[in-house]
Give the backbone structure.
Amino acid sequence: MLTPLTPIKARPFQGGAITVRSPAQIPFGSYSMVQNIRGKHPDFIKRSGQRKQHSVADSANEVLSLYQFRKSRVDEKHFFAQMSDGDILEAANAPPALTTGVFGNEAFSGGADQIPASWSNIGDKLLMSNGVDQHKIYCGNSSFVEKFIVDRSISATVGLPSKGEDFSKEVTNDRSGVAILDGLNSYTFYNRIFIRVPAPITGFYIDVDTPNTNTTVMSVGYWSENNVWSQATSFSDGTSSGGVSLAQSGYVSFADYDDIITKYQYGSNGYWLEIRFSLQLSSTVRIKSVKFQSEFEDITNVWDGVPVDAVECQVENSENQTWKIYGSQAVDIDLLPSGSKLMIASSDPIEGIYFGVGGTPNLASGSGLNDIKYWDGSSFITVGTVNNGTDQTPQQNLVLSNSGWMTFKRQDAQPTQFQSTKYSAYWYEVTFSGGLSDDIVVEIQTMPYFDITELGISQCNTVWKDRAVYTFDEYGSYLYITPQGKPLVLNGTEYGILRAGDGRNNKVVAMKSYKDWLMVWQEEKGVQGGCVTLFSGYNPASYQRTVLSTRIGTMNSKTVAVIESVKTATADTATALEEKIATLVFFLSNNGVCVSNGYTISIVSDDIQNYFDSSKEECIRRGYEDKMWLTYDSTHGVLRLGLVSGPLATKANVFPVYDLADKAWSFDVLGQNLACMAEIEAGSENIPIVQVGGGQEDGTVYQLNYGLNDVEIAIDTYAQIELNNSGLVLNLREFLIRFAAQDYGEVIVEFFKNNLPGPTKTISMLPEKPGQIIKRERFHLNLMDQNISIRISSGEYNTEMNLVEMGMVISVWDNR
């Protein structure tokens, strides 16, 4: 006896594959495989292909990561590919434009065995971390300088430069205002220009509004480790014409330098450059704007420019052979005899000491600075030449006659305990020649400098609330958060240090800014796994930590995606159909594909969980976490993944796809396997965003979602439906299918009885009459089995396929 089970009424093609179960256990009408298909909600379409971005491969390199650096203040963008040989290449053309030849020129060459880099953009500055080099900062080809100050001094500067005309506002935009250099004299008369930039640079572009007409030669200096202005080499002045600098707009370029350091002047600390002229400029010279260019440079820990109180001061009276201890705010040195020592303790090595004399300056004629010494690990030795800003009239040798800085060359100072102190600090010894006058009470502050290498090498970075966030290999679970808008400042009151996780030292492998939070993932290690930590707050005083998981983590910087506008059901809705739009974080774990809303973590990979089941041969392979990836493809609203599956795989070889609207899984089989994927802004045509992928060991970057084939390989597309009903024998009597009509290709419908081949129906996609958009085919069958499989495919070269609906007449044979 046959009992009707389904009518012929067609239903849309919609849903996804279930691989966690055997075909015999898949619910009636569900899919055991959906391959190379994208959902239209409803409808299935064959996925688009991929093509080479460039015609010549970069050897046999793997593309570890891809990123586009897009700036806002100036119209500039760079598309980078991180290659497995340590190089970062910059695309010669922005997709969808193709490149004849190699992908592009080398922008950076780093160390071997890099991890997939993490990339961030803060204030038109790019941060890059690759796990083997120091964190890098890159500002591009055209960024406005931070400061532009014209110094028209008529005598040598005593102390730090502080006087000048500030034209920073005028030269840091392309709209209005000019810097006035009228009649600026030569450096012989101590005239010069200072510009400040956020990192070491290799040149700058001067937009000349009113040109100079006097013969003169420009030179550029930088503040070097020797505590002097060193002249840039390989200098080229593009503003010069006929021996006249600033005669035209142009680039001023010079060689990169290894000995540049930051300098404090004009009340701020940073990378300052000095521009000099050999002869006076003409009477009217105006500059419209100044923009600089840079390369990938190591980040440094730049002092924030806020003077730091000394930890402690001890004053010796050599005549009485006594010592007195003071804080930093009121150090009594009145009538200090010649040769007596003023000892200053600092928590960091310093290159300057500030003396605030208040209303009681030194008036003792002939009293000068004798020396400043530092502890080198075995004795106190001189710092060398001191630039004494407390003596405004050096000819009178009157030290501490004014408040000011005493600065000196950076030294290899070592911390030590001094006298009876219970702590170690950097101690500096100051002595004066000639006794000081009466009633001198000074405030003492310091100018510290820092060694970024103490923290180790880079691991990953992100940007959160306009703050750069770094992790290093030396203390892998710690986060270092800079003040707002200052990606090279890892010090000061606005600098914070946070620790992720539950106390274990698992290194941080990924960080993302999510809503108002910072979400941090640690590597999954050992039986306990990893951690996911959420940080909130606005400054170091308000930071709070919430650990979302003490077992789940992620794999690397390219296995996390923050996605906006995801439809999701919530706990307070009546049914799962009542959904709202949300911003969610999806990430790849050894436990599965996870999603978080900032409060909980769920696994969405239940239907393909066999790939995360260690008892299955296809389980992802331990030790190859850096090879896996997860990225959002906004063209189709899907997550695309690359998994290293099976005991022998060393590269991603399984490519699941998660449809965020249908919450369904499918799989891509690629003609050229991918090691990573990214979305970038298009350089031309009408589509604003394009998808790109990096090849595995073929040195090639691909444009995705393009064309009908994977380069020259046909895309094998099919969906396989399983028919089961509690072990009963089914009778498939009729089949109905509707699909889009097109000018070429065929739909192939194959039937299987318990995995054994049955009949095959080949249906042309050509319209039956001109203008038809949908084809319909209905045919009779007489298939009987406990498990019936139906595979619908189109794997021909250069063909599309759009499946609309299918229907079946099925009965149950009750007697069997």
Notes: The two ends are 9 Å apart (CA to CA). The longest strand covers residues 729-740. The chain is about 0% helix and 45% strand. Helices lie at 168-171.
